[in-house]
Amino acid sequence: MIYPLVSELAASGIPVTVSCRVLKLARQPYYRWRKSPIADAEILRANRMNALVDAHREDPEFGCRFLHHQARRAGVRMSRRTAWVLCRAAGISSAVQRQRRRGKGHRPGPPVFDDFVKRQFTADAPNRVWLTDITEHWTSEGKLYCCAIKDVFSNRIVGYSIADRMTSKLAGDALTNAVRRRGDVAGCILHADRGSQFRSRKMGLALSRHSMIGSMGRVASAGDNAAMESFWALLQKNVLNRQTWTTRADLRLAIVTWIERTYHHRRPQDRLGGLTPIEYETKINTNKALAA
């Protein structure tokens, strides 16, 4: 915008007519600009961009879709398309990149449970269907393993365990952690792949003790636990591959912090109506209390 320069020259004693002639500008648009120097549309655009920049500064790993949610939560409304255009104009992008899908590297064993989920990753209440899986990542001290359990009702991670060995105890500890957090889980389905940790006698006894139902997918069907794999993909991009991890303790702290602070409380999800897992469960519980 060159009109401010014309105003500065006029303040220095140079007539507007002369400045416009030298700069090859029409005078009428300049005078219209003087009456309203900044258009309402420009102000709105600046406010929207500021909201997106602020959200990105707070969470650099968030992409356009989640920055759009954060801006709306801050009271600045816009369409997702507008958010994408503004992010592109401002050079805003997620600090993480899409990673390749990790491979298992081994053949799955025979199932010990039927498949009661059949890729229907929905539930009408908490503690009806849980998904579980194990991921691993290298540190300078060696591998660190994380077993997590996800409630498909709200996508909340209801339990997890982290250790330097991938054993049946890792899976059992995650289940124990989930049961302690959620209370009565009788009748809840726990769906897993055919890893030995989930086929172990110890896991079977734990499920029976809590009156839960085991479920396993088919061989070579990654889609049978796709909803859990999507969580690992987020963890991979937002934590595991963000840097080289020196110690297992550092990586353990980063995983726990991301799950409890960012994923549960600060990352809105489209399937939950733009709410975080904690907000979604709180909303459902509040509605039930009001209806009672």
Description:
The chain is an alpha/beta fold and 292 residues long. Helices cover 49% and strands 13% of the residues. It contains 12 helices and 5 strands. The chain has helices at residues 3-11, 16-23, 27-35, 40-58, 64-73, 80-90, 168-182, 196-199, 201-209, 226-240, 248-265, 277-291; strands spanning 129-139, 142-151, 156-163, 189-192, 213-216. A 5-stranded mixed beta sheet has the order 3-2-1-4-5, with helices on both faces. It is elongated and about 90 Å long. Residues 98-105 have low confidence and may be disordered.
SSE topology:
Layout: H1 3-11, H2 16-23, H3 27-35, H4 40-58, H5 64-73, H6 80-90, E1 129-139, E2 142-151, E3 156-163, H7 168-182, E4 189-192, H8 196-199, H9 201-209, E5 213-216, H10 226-240, H11 248-265, H12 277-291
Parallel strand pairs: 1-4, 4-5
Antiparallel strand pairs: 1-2, 2-3
Briefly characterize the structure.
The protein is an alpha/beta fold and 292 residues long. Helices cover 49% and strands 13% of the residues. Helix 5 packs across helix 6 and helix 10 packs across helix 11.
Number of helices: 12
Poorly predicted runs are 98-105
| Average pLDDT score | 85
Number of extended strands:
5
Please state the CA-atom Rg, rounded to the nearest Å. 27 Å
Described by the principal axes of the CA atoms, the overall outline is elongated
Q: What class do helices, strands and sheet pairing give?
A: alpha/beta
H-E string: HHHHHHEEEHEHHEHHH
Helix fraction by DSSP (H/I, runs of at least 4) = 40-55%
Tell me about the largest β-sheet.
5 strands, mixed
- Beta-strand percentage? 5-15%
- Widest sheet: strand ordering: 3-2-1-4-5
Rounded to the nearest angstrom, the distance between the terminal CA atoms is: 60 Å
